[in-house]
Amino acid sequence: MFHTPLERSQSGRGDVSSLLDQLARCSTRPRYAFMLLTLIADVARPDGSAGPIVRRDGELALLRDWLCDALTPMGQRDPRRLALVERVRSELSNTGDLPAEAAAADERIDEEVRMRVRASGKTNLSRAVSELVQAGLLRRHYQGYRVDHHNRGAQRQAVYTLVGPARVLMHRGAPAPSPTPPRQGVLALG
């Protein structure tokens, strides 16, 4: 009866629940895809686009790097991540690249793990984005400088735009509109 367009879709279900239903049908990893869409909505401009560079916590980062880093904590307790930490420790120790001081060694291991996780995260990210593009929830294009050589995509970075039902995520938690100020010529009595 008193539902706004953001609260209900044509099917009578909430827009977010409709989005989740669509993700369950179109994605091999719907939870990951939903987290990805939510993060993109977090940094999206009013037109729904995000990237190629985002500013978070006063720092600039490439969108894909930031997304990978933002999703990294989800796997902290994963046995494969724990095994990766031990494998990196062993590799650095065997090559003599592990500092003798414990704090410096831990920092070096963390940095190497972060780089490897980001590299594999970009593969997961690309796969999820391709599924979302195919489902009509995301549009992808590239911006940047093109140089003349065999890799025509060099120095170009991804821009993702929320489209269709995914745009509902942009409105979640938005501040309420402020009351309209009086028009010129109208006396504001206070």
What would a concise description of this structure say?
By secondary structure, this protein is α+β, with helices and mostly antiparallel strands.
Q: Could you characterize what this model shows?
A:
The chain has 190 residues and is an alpha+beta fold. The protein has a domain at 15-74 and 125-171: Arc Repressor Mutant, subunit A (Orthogonal Bundle). It is 47% helix and 13% strand. It is built from six helices and five strands. The strands form two sheets. It has a three-stranded antiparallel β-sheet, with helices on one face. A hairpin with a 2-residue loop joins strand 2 and strand 3. The radius of gyration is 22 Å and the shape is elongated.
Fold topology:
Layout: H1 15-26, H2 30-43, E1 49-50, E2 53-56, E3 59-62, H3 63-71, H4 79-95, H5 102-134, E4 138-144, E5 156-162, H6 168-171
Antiparallel strand pairs: 1-5, 2-3, 4-5
Brief descriptors of the model:
190 residues, alpha+beta, Arc Repressor Mutant, subunit A, three-stranded antiparallel sheet, 5 strands, 13% strand, disordered N terminus
Overall, the morphology is: elongated
Q: Under the CATH scheme, which class of the domain at 15-74 and 125-171?
A: Mainly Alpha
Q: What would the CATH topology of the domain at 15-74 and 125-171 be?
A: Arc Repressor Mutant, subunit A
Q: Averaging pLDDT over every residue, what do you get?
A: 80
Radius of gyration: 22 Å
As a percent range, the share of helical residues equals 40-55%
- Low-pLDDT segments, ≥5 res: 1-12
